[in-house]
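Section 4.2 – Deliverable D4.2 (structural model, holo form)

The reporting period included a commitment to supply a predicted holo structure for the target in complex with zinc ion. Inputs used:
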Amino acid sequence: MEFSDEQIHRYSRQMILPGVGGKGQRKLTEAKVFIMGAGGLGSPAALYLAAAGIGTIGLADSDQVELHNLQRQILHRTCDVGLPKVESGKKTLESLNPEVRVQIYAERVTSVNIREIIKDYNLVLDGSDNFPTRFLVNDACYFERKTLISGAILRFDGQLSTFKPHANGPCYRCLFPEPPPPGLVPSCQEAGVLGAVAGIIGLFQANEALKEILGIGKSMAGRFLQFNALDLSFHELKIQKNPNCPLCGENPTIKELIDYSQSCQTGGSEKDSFYGDVCRGEDFNPQSPS
Ligand SMILES: [Zn+2]
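Output (structure tokens):
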């Protein structure tokens, strides 16, 4: 594939980077990245991936844009209130970079359709806001052998990791075997979130996606980052594959996808799947998240 003059111009500042060049840009142009959620995390991630020239971006979200989303979900504008988030997101991404193909999924992603949806993508970014979806995405990525770049936010805190169980790394369930009991973890709706924190973690996810596609730098697989915006602190934990993981362990009990009930979660429609302080500390034990 030859680049047009316009493409070379558009991507010139990243094509001159060591590790990118024409070869790297071609990898980006041929890449297909699926983003679960066009909200606080998916918005900044999608914008930067589109700007970088990712060839195909899949965007899944069954919600419509609401006014209180606009404080952090920067794919959407005031005039988009009431529109499906995926339509608003597609419009914004295509106006930023018309070369990007944006594939949208407005339906609810469930155990029935998720594997079919993600199977053609190279990478999955999870920006979902509830535990049922977060576990569903993790399990589907495990069965489809897709690299999963996971982000979560709440209040002034953020978390980031990359899961590659197909390359002997841990999966999300190696850390958190099951969704937490209702009421344990507050939601963004209940506890709030600073918009910039969503931007920071969403961009970390985009950054990791670009690194994975380009094959540069040090992957976040086997690493779990905790970020606090108030004291601007970063805390990194090493995480390992858990032999007792119910999904990717030695004697797995989960053999198929599970639709956890949304109604067993707390906090109404907007919940954030964030584990807060449960795994803070040096002697992190992935088998005992609580
Ligand atoms: Zn696992």
